[in-house]
Amino acid sequence: MRRTVNIILNILIVISGLIGSYIMFFTNMTDVGLTSKGIENLKFFTILSNELCIIIAAAFLIATALKKKFPITLKLIGAAAVLLTFAVVAFFLQPVNPHVNLYGGGHLWFHLIVPVLAAVEFITLPKTDGIPLRSAFIAAVPAVIYGIFYLANILINGIGEWPDTNDWYGFLKWGYAVGALIFLGNTLLNIGCACLLRAVKNRIDR
After folding, report:
1. What is d(CA 166, CA 154) in angstroms, rounded to the nearest whole number?
2. Measured distance CA(12)–CA(83) in Å, rounded
3. Structure confidence by residue, pLDDT tens digits, 57-81
4. pTM here?
5. How far apart are CA 47 and CA 142, in angstroms?
């Protein structure tokens, strides 16, 4: 039963992700907060985390069709990454930018629908003998890599002026020290999201 549910949820993740991707890359999103267009949107963690989750979901479906075992750590990485996106938008970016509709257009799919589907899909995966804690730390790798890229790009090319700024999330508006703390917070939040998913999954399996 769980396997059937997982297959359905992964299909929904792929379909929802493709819809969101089409809207993000091929439609005008300036009215809902995006100043970038097309391929330029790949600079956002929101886009990258969702695309990663979509790829992992598609790989899971292929592995299932081939009757191959799929690494649950990869599923945790994908689910935790989009859950981080969900949390940052819901509890930071939307409150800080109330004039911007971060649930409009493609945002609806990438900030809400895909993250919810991914979280539900992860905790309903077939029963395991327990997910090790180290998997939660491995799941934070995407946030760490993105944070390094983000800050390195600013140090090399400068912050710039809006809308052509390299600080597109506005994390450095309070200075580099606060910006670094925000990225550290994001990494810890990514680990927290992974720990939450791991804890719920392990409890359900028990």
Report:
1. 6
2. 16
3. 999 999 999 999 999 999 999 999 9
4. 0.89
5. 12
Cα–Cα distances (Å) from 134 to 4, 48, 113, 196, 202, in that order, read 28, 23, 28, 13, 14
Average pLDDT (120-125) is 94
Residue range 190-204: mean pLDDT, rounded = 95
Q: Where are the domains of the chain?
A: 2-205
